[in-house]
Amino acid sequence: MSARQPRLLIVEDDAGLQRQLRWSFEDYDVVVAGDRESALAMLRRHEPAVVLQDLGLPPDEAGTAEGFATITEILQQAPYTKIIVVTGNGDRDNAVKSIGCGAYDFCSKPLDLEVLRLIVSRAFRLHELEAENRRLRNASATALEGIIGGSEAMRDACRLVEKVGPTNATVLLLGETGTGKELFARAIHRLSARREGPFVAINCAAIPENLLEAELFGYEKGAYTGAHKQTKGKIELAANGSLLLDEIGDMPAALQAKLLRFLQERVVERIGGRETIPVDVRIICSTHQNLPELIRDGRFREDLFYRVSEVSIRLPPLRDRAGDVAPLARHFLEQAAGRHGRVVRGFTAKALKAIEAHPWRGNVRELENAVNSAVIMAEGKQIGTDELHLNAAAGDEVLDLREVRNEAEKRAIRRAMTREGGNLSKVADVLGISRPTLYDLMDKHGLKKPTDSD
Ligand SMILES: Nc1ncnc2c1ncn2[C@@H]1O[C@H](COP(=O)(O)OP(=O)(O)OP(=O)(O)O)[C@@H](O)[C@H]1O
Ligand SMILES: [Mg+2]
Fold first, then answer.
1. For the ranges 208-222, 287-301, 308-322, 375-389, which has the lowest average pLDDT?
2. Which of 30, 85, 220, 408 has the smallest set of CB atoms within 10 Å of its CB?
3. Which atom of ligand 1 is nearest to the CA of 183?
4. How high is the pLDDT of residue 389?
5. What CATH class is the domain 319-395?
């Protein structure tokens, strides 16, 4: 918190002891109360982290009832308060009872002030650590807010994000289109100490090669025709924040070299400029492409790959996230209903089945779009199959089965290709078919064959 002294509440009715304690805790911000009522008032007003609590308070100075009642009420109002109970000499029963009531520790009279000071300082330290812990936990909960996914695969991805988010590591997010790469990149940014800084994204596939360099590195006035004024690039604009290089696999070779230099030296030089400008930015990259394959084809630099993939996180396609489809659909339905001011309560059972059976090649984005337009089209309170426009939804069993078979075939071939590194004889072996059959199947499914012979 702030640099102010830690605040200690002393609940003690004996004026002599009050004075003595105030004196020994000079380096704290001490407030004192003489009975239960004023103790609770002080608690509300000053929010002390630690309370030193005498058990014998008026009107029951000789007993302990008031003391215990005070402890209970303090913890009801401020459960994180650390209470240290002062007990009578050798009064073990009340010491035990205090801990049972939720007190942090006890110290018996006559007070050994050295020991008491140690106990108090440890209590403050623990309180601080616990508060920090709660803060971190809340931060990660809000950073991952809006990410739906109970499947094992998604939970693994979220756990990884929680771990690397707070570091400065360069993260590579892998996944097909619409799997949530940008969503995760933003979560990583929110989890970092840079969360107050900018989050800037640039899509390397969407910007023509000759403009991408200027977009990334900026330019000086007059650097080329049309450079009317000095302009900062995205790297500089993301200073003290995070930069998402979306579709890094599509970055042209010349720029890959320049980016690598930036990652090594952490300075940029604007086009036409002479200055080198240090920039502190966290780089996050994403791609739907298979980078090792691009490296093999000489289209992506291996050294850059190792630089950008200090940690890689793979976001699985929706079809591999068992159980996530229905919760996502409901989430998007609520969002869309709110956005369009529609009262739509849910899906019909048949519609939900169709949603679960659909292959979702466009992944979460395709699902989001389908639900969104269904909400706009919906006539009743529930979304039915008609409004969803899913090809496989109408329940034509034969067609459906063919679809399922095709999908399974395609997936098996793709998996075998990845596993065998594109060696077609081995792929055919693994699949238990001949090479010509494999060729036919690949043609049928529009799968690309490796260009170099195996
Ligand atoms: N797990 C999820 N929970 C909730 N919404 C999600 C989830 N994953 C993705 N989305 C939503 O789906 C849409 C697509 O996600 P995003 O843009 O992050 O995907 P992407 O992988 O970057 O896609 P592309 O490769 O097409 O750029 C976004 O609207 C995003 O909010
Ligand atoms: Mg994206």
1. 375-389
2. 408
3. 18
4. 82
5. mainly alpha
| 121 Cβ closer than 6 Å to some ligand 1 atom | no
| pLDDT at 341 (0 to 100) | 87
Q: 398-444 maps to which CATH number?
A: 1.10.10
Q: What confidence tens digit (pLDDT) does each residue in 25-53 have?
A: 999 999 999 999 999 999 999 999 999 99
Helix, strand, or coil here: 34? coil
Q: What is the pLDDT of residue 258?
A: 95
- Is 179 near ligand 1, meaning CB less than 6 Å away? yes
Residue minimizing CA distance to atom 15 of ligand 1 = 180
How far, in Å, CA of 28 to CA of 45, rounded?
Answer: 17
Q: What is the pLDDT of residues 244-302, one digit of tens each?
A: 999 999 999 999 999 999 999 999 999 999 999 999 999 999 999 999 999 999 999 99
Class for domain 152-316, per CATH? alpha beta
Length of the chain: 454
Q: Do 406 and 369 form a contact (C-beta atoms < 8 A)? A: no
Residue bearing the CA closest to ligand 1, atom 18: 180
Contacts of 224 (CB under 8 A, 6+ apart): 271, 272
pLDDT at 393 over 60: no
Q: Facing residues of 313 across strands?
A: 173
* DSSP for residue 75: H
Distance 172 CA to ligand 2 centre (A): 13
Q: Matching CATH topology for 7-137 and 152-316?
A: yes
Ligand at minimal distance from the CA of 180 is: 1
Q: Which ligand is nearest to the CA of 287?
A: 1
Element (H, E) at 284: strand 282-287
Domain 7-137 in CATH 3.40.50.720: no
Domain layout of the chain by residue ranges: 7-137, 152-316, 319-395, 398-444
pLDDT at site 34: 95
Would the CB of 178 count as within 6 Å of ligand 1? yes
